[in-house]
User: What shape does this take?
Amino acid sequence: MPSRPDAAPPPPSRLGDRLLERAADAVLAWSARGVEPARLAWIEALRGELAHVEGAPARLSWALGALSLACIARRRSLSRPWYSWPALMRTSGFGLVLSAVLVAGIVWSNVVVPSHESDSEYTTWYAVFYAGLLVYFFVAGLVVAGRPASIPLAAVTGAVTAVLVALIVLVTFVVIDNLFLSVVMQQPDKASGFAHSGLTSQRDYVNNGNLEALLLVPALLGALGAGLGALGGLVRTRVGRREPAVPV
Assistant: This one.
């Protein structure tokens, strides 16, 4: 018996129609994932009417209407700049406020009423200050995390806070050390360090120390601030989950 011939391939027109219909379904499915709930109802309505549209090209054109809605929604979401003034102030506000307080304290203790005591006599107070600084980074992330809380935003806030504080404080020391060098070098720790440094210029001594601090401290403190800020954001998310729903 002769072998049965293979099934004939579908006509080109029918194959093209199937491809266009699948493309229309894919467009609708993708569009439904990219819009807010208010616009999702429109896309579902377009999907419901798709079966009543005659012709595969017309169905694809019908589906493209949903694509335009999705593109508008995405364009609006991308048009919210992260660098807007409110966003910048929320992220950097904690760092700027603390920096202003620290700068005032540094100018007071180094220029206005300079101390002639060694830092070793204030070890306990320095430990309290650094502990408070770490808590401050945590609180910055906790507060700015938002509602609903965003751990990445909290981490960025903690990092920005730490880097701003480090940079502004260190630049303040650079300015004071160069403008009031004779006053600064009366500090016991500065005088002792210079005597054992082997340098012949007091200005070189203080600037070398400031340069090393500028290269290391902001990066290290920024990483620490990011971790503590993220921890604050994590706590904010846990607290948000436990909050009772507000009855409507």
